[in-house]
Write a structure and sequence with these properties.
With about 425 residues, this protein is of the alpha/beta class. It has helices at about 10-20, 25-35, 50-65, 80-95, 110-120, 130-140, 155-160, 165-170, 190-195, 210, 230-240, 250-265, 275-290, 300, 320-330, 350-360, 370-375, 385-390, and strands at about 40-45, 75, 100-105, 125, 150, 180-185, 185, 200-205, 215-220, 245, 270, 295, 310-315, 340-345, 430. The chain folds into 2 domains: about 5-205, Rossmann fold (3-Layer(aba) Sandwich), CATH 3.40.50; about 215-430, P-loop containing nucleotide triphosphate hydrolases (Rossmann fold, 3-Layer(aba) Sandwich). About 40% of the residues lie in helices and about 15% in strands. Helix 3 crosses helix 4 (about 80-95) and helix 6 (about 130-140) packs across helix 8. It binds adenosine monophosphate (AMP).
Length: about 425
């Protein structure tokens, strides 16, 4: 079905064709006509499905008719600064022929330019919840004219502990409005949020990336922890990889790995929540323009990064939550391109690998180790790990799995602050 059949106006179709999009993605084909009709939507779709355009295009069209207000009429809440920036850019890109103003509002940068933008008047705000509340507290934003609310990556916002912030924002919105909720997963918490928020929503579910991920070649190396770094360097050099996103479980681990790669003449940068916004933006820009060959990221920092045609993703450590594996490899093989995802799995991560394979409903093929990595000796488990695990060793004598991600490697994991619960196995997809 061509875009023109979805009911979009010529100005938007022009912007879409400049982007080179020829066909709507499934989420776009299903969501756009519903949103244009003013319906609430509950969409199960993750990054990489084209979900941003699925809400941005109809919002731009609905707001096109001037209301005479100078106050914003659409609000998009996102979990991370990077996602806010990307969603805001998408509004600007798709809305280039429409006279609407979008403000991007997130913390870690000066608040004054954001206040100035609000004062000049705007139509759409894309914001992270914390900074938006700062503006509300200072009286620098007026949400009394909001007609459309989007919660983007709602599951991640809840995982990051934003529920109270979201509720505070909701309390400041007019009761009469259109609500769009996008979430990759459908937990009881999301269901509760959706039940309280949405009015007879249209339910849309898009196949999960792991089901549709034929475009991502996934492989595993079984490797001792002590050999991971050399194996990564070997893989990058041998495969002549030029753009690699490497996932690290901790901020500290991300920094250390980036430093080690730089010492091995592989340009690398780390991106995580402790980095200033400008450092994160610079690292991402360097990665996109090819100056940075390897971006080492934590899950939270990488969430929602829109890096087109990303060819390689490496799990330097496996995530504790199997669904995060799916989010991670969703960075590659996007929009029909092929990509490769490689996981370096040490002895104490075997159980995590099993969980991931159970979720994927298949075994991941194992690659043979190069000679140098075969001779690496097993590392004794660290005292912190034994402590975190209580029993220290499982019945088969292997080092046990740390119970939570904060205990892994003795480092504090990024962003979750220990609030994040392991998802229950029966956590199902969004309906
Ligand atoms: P998203 O899921 O919104 O993060 O989008 C994922 C990627 O798909 C982005 O790089 C978009 O530019 C791209 N994209 C969105 N819609 C389309 C489309 N209809 N055809 C091709 N690419 C698209």
């Amino acid at each position: 079905m061509p875009f023109a059949d979805l009911g979009l106006e010529a100005e938007l179709l022009r912007a879409i064709s400049v982007q080179g999009y020829t066909q709507p993605t499934p989420i776009q084909a299903q969501a756009i006509p519903e949103i244009l009709q003013g319906r609430d939507v509950l969409a199960g779709a993750q990054t990489g499905t084209g979900k941003t355009a699925a809400f941005a295009l109809p919002i731009l069209q609905l707001l096109r008719a001037p209301s005479g207000h100078k106050t914003p009429r659409a609000l998009v809440l996102t979990p991370t600064r990077e996602l806010a920036a990307q969603v805001g850019e998408s509004f600007n890109t798709y809305g280039q022929h429409v006279k609407l103003h979008t403000a991007i509002v997130f913390g870690g940068v000066g608040i004054q330019p954001q206040k100035d933008a609000m004062r000049r008047g705007l139509d759409i705000i894309v914001a992270t919840p914390g900074r938006l509340l700062d503006h509300l507290g200072q009286g620098t934003v007026d949400l009394s004219s909001i007609e459309i609310l989007v919660l983007d990556e709602a599951d991640r916002m809840l995982d990051m502990g934003f529920i109270h912030d979201i509720k505070k924002v909701l309390a400041r919105l007019p009761k009469q409005r259109q609500n769009l909720l996008f979430s990759a997963t459908y937990s009881n918490d999301i269901k509760r949020l959706a039940d309280g928020l949405l009015n007879h929503p249209k339910l849309i579910e898009i196949a999960r990336k792991n089901v549709a991920a034929d475009t991502v070649q996934q492989h595993v190396y079984h490797v001792e922890k002590s050999a991971k770094r050399d194996l990564l360097i070997h893989a990058i050099n041998d495969g002549q990889w030029h753009q690699v996103l490497v996932f690290s479980r901790t901020k500290h681990g991300a920094n250390r790995l980036a430093e080690q790669l730089n010492r091995s003449n592989i340009q690398a940068a780390a991106i995580h929540g402790n980095k200033s916004q400008s450092a994160r933006t610079k690292a991402l820009a360097g990665f996109k323009n090819g100056h940075v060959r390897v971006l080492v990221a934590t899950d939270i920092a990488a969430r929602g990064l829109d890096i087109e045609l990303l060819p390689h993703v490496v799990n330097y450590e496996l995530p504790n939550v199997p669904e995060d594996y799916v989010h991670r490899i969703g960075r590659t093989g996007r929009a029909g391109e092929t990509g490769a995802a490689i996981s370096l799995v040490s002895r104490d991560e075997r159980k995590l690998l099993q969980d991931i394979q159970r979720l994927l409903k298949r075994e991941l093929p194992v690659l043979p180790l190069p000679e140098f990595a075969r001779s690496a000796t097993p590392e004794p488990s660290k005292p912190q790990q034994r402590k975190a695990n209580n029993s220290g060793r499982s019945h088969n004598g292997q080092p046990g799995q740390p119970r939570n991600r904060n205990a892994a490697n003795g480092n504090v994991a990024e962003g979750t602050g220990g609030q994040r619960k392991r998802r229950s196995p029966n956590r199902s997809r969004a309906a």
